[in-house]
Amino acid sequence: MKVIAFNGSPNREGNTYQAIKLVTDELEKEGIRTEIVQVGSKSVRGCIACGKCLKNKNEECALTGDEVNEWIQKMKNAEGILLGSPVHYSSIGATMKAFLDRAIYVTGNNNGMLRHKVGAAVVAVRRSGGIPAFTQLNNYLCYSEMFIPTSNYWNVIHGTRPGEALKDEEGVQIMRVLGKNMAWLIKIIENGKETIKTPVSEKKIFMNFIR
Known about the structure:
Oligomer: single chain
Distance between the termini: 48 Å
Low-confidence stretches: none
Radius of gyration: 17 Å
């Protein structure tokens, strides 16, 4: 079993990384392999709404020149996905959003590639705006029909300079509990597949409200 984590911070080992590492350390203790992918410092173009991923159904975004398609395959081959981002103006980082807009649209348009995987989100913030960014990440998980483990509070950790988040004792506990609960949920799902029938996937109904 494996969890792939995406670091949406431009700082490779800043506070977002520390939050992710607190979670992945707990996963590793439970025998779940982890990998952290650096996203926030990369050049990633946003979705251009071409619709080719829906038409081609080849599990790829039509845009090339970055690592998004490689990251999509990493998501496909993992049992769990962990999204981490810093908070920029009460929102997730722009590069992280560009990546998720494309990746989640591709996976959703290719037979729900992330359906029933375990997904969690964490954010690192200096002072405020953490909850809106946390909610924004969760929106991608909900759209993908993923299962979301919880902690004992919202998954937000505080710090400004790299490493300061480790001084947020409550935040550290939140990440640690999240890691334990994520590991448990992954194991429950994996062990239950042989005994409990998976719900049948329904074709998505699309509507607008123009009459």
